[in-house]
Amino acid sequence: MASAQVAFAVAASSGHDLAGHYECAKRIPAIMEALEQARLTPDAQPQKIMEILGARTASKAELEAVHSPAHIADMRQKALQDAPCVVADFEETPDNTTYMAKSSFDDALQAVGSALAVVDAVMGGVQAASHTKGFAVIRPPGHHATKEAPMGFCLFNNVAIAARYAQQRYGLRKVMIVDFDVHHGNGTQDLFYNDDSVLFIDIHQHQVWPGSGHVNESGQGAGDGYTINVPLPVGSGHEAALRTFQRVVQPAAARFQPDIILASAGYDAHMLDPLEKLNYQSATYHALVSSLMSLSDRLCSGRLAILLEGGYSFQGLSEGVCNSFQALIGGKPLHDIDAHGPAEPSGAVDEVLGEVVATHKLQQ
User: Fold this and answer.
1) Range(s) of the domain holding residue 348
2) Is residue 55 part of a domain?
3) What total of structural domains would you count in the chain?
4) Mind listing the GO biological process terms from this record (predicted)?
5) 188 located within any domain
6) Pick from 124, 135, 161, 147: nearest CA to 41
7) Does residue 1 form part of some domain?
8) Each residue of 294-304: pLDDT tens digit?
9) Is residue 282 part of a domain?
10) CA-based nearest residue to 114, from 307, 296, 309
């Protein structure tokens, strides 16, 4: 079991649910069923895949590494006294609100704890070897949550807490976060905007909610240059994702030399997703995760932990996650790239990438 190539933890959070909402409790079962059908389970591949069982919940101190005590207390209070309730509006429609059910606070703690358990596995802790990659199949998502508030379906910022945990628990100096959710990870950006110990690279669709993530948002103070935003134009797909990694992510990572790589893995850039208008394909996620694996192997002893964020087409979400697992165990993509799919705005993509490269002085 210690030789497993990928260790995963699951926080199904079945109680955190709202009928008709995009971010619903059915997301995790859809993923787990797809992994079973694809034979990407410990039973089917015991030498390659292991599940971290009994993952703990996060502690108050771990949450306070990025969130204020007031925010944590408010979330607990709302779950105990106000739930079910809305804690933040998206576009003032029932399927776009940030909600809390009675169990949401505890479910969010379990999600964070599962993310930290995956970091432990990547660092060579109990049940895993030092070369193990990790995947946290968790909800609610986290990358919109700020220091003081929930936002965009997110209660606590899972990846930000994981980054601080890696630094504080294991003494890692430099953490690289790559966010490929279709929406900009505004909460993660805000939390590390003045921090040169965290390189935050966010690849998202241009001019969609929450409206942040412009190229000129590049950090400030000590963190100047350590936030890199890539706002891709509508219709960007597989080729745009590959070129972004080649022209931006790889040279930025090589310059930063991270001690661990974390990924905010949103699957809502998939062409089937109902929310926005990027055209990633299922195999695109195999390519993204393969690229992150290569970077981690080359730069930081293979330390790579992937945390689930968005993804609201059950088919796009489950196929994307399965392709990610397949990449983590060194297998081939489970789906072919459709070369006859929607045309990509190649010229506009190159213009954006050129602006990012120039802004951050990335060597090609």
Assistant:
1) 6-360
2) yes
3) 1
4) epigenetic regulation of gene expression
5) yes
6) 135
7) no
8) 999 999 999 99
9) yes
10) 307
Beta bridge mates, 134: 7, 305
Q: Does a cis peptide bond (omega within 30 degrees of 0) precede residue 140?
A: yes
Q: Which residues are catalytic?
A: 144
Distances (CA, A) of 167 to 216, 290, 296: 27, 25, 17
Strand partners for 86: 99
pTM (global) more than 0.90: yes
Q: Write down the pLDDT at residue 92.
A: 53
Residue 130 has pLDDT above 80, yes or no: no
ω into residue 84 within 30 of 0, thus cis?
yes
Contacts (Cβ under 8 Å, ≥6 apart) of 298: none
- Extract the tokens encoding 107: 């479910």
CATH classification of the domain holding 264: 3.40.800.20
What is the reported pLDDT for 2?
A: 42
Strands, E, within 52-97: which ranges? 85-88
Cβ within 8 Å of residue 233, ≥6 positions away? 205, 206, 345, 348, 349, 352
Q: Largest Cα–Cα distance of the chain, in whole Å?
A: 55
| CA dihedral over 284, 304, 308, 41, signed as positive or negative | positive
Q: In what order do the strands lie in the sheet with 260-265?
A: 49-51, 6-11, 133-138, 304-308, 260-265, 175-179, 198-205, 227-232
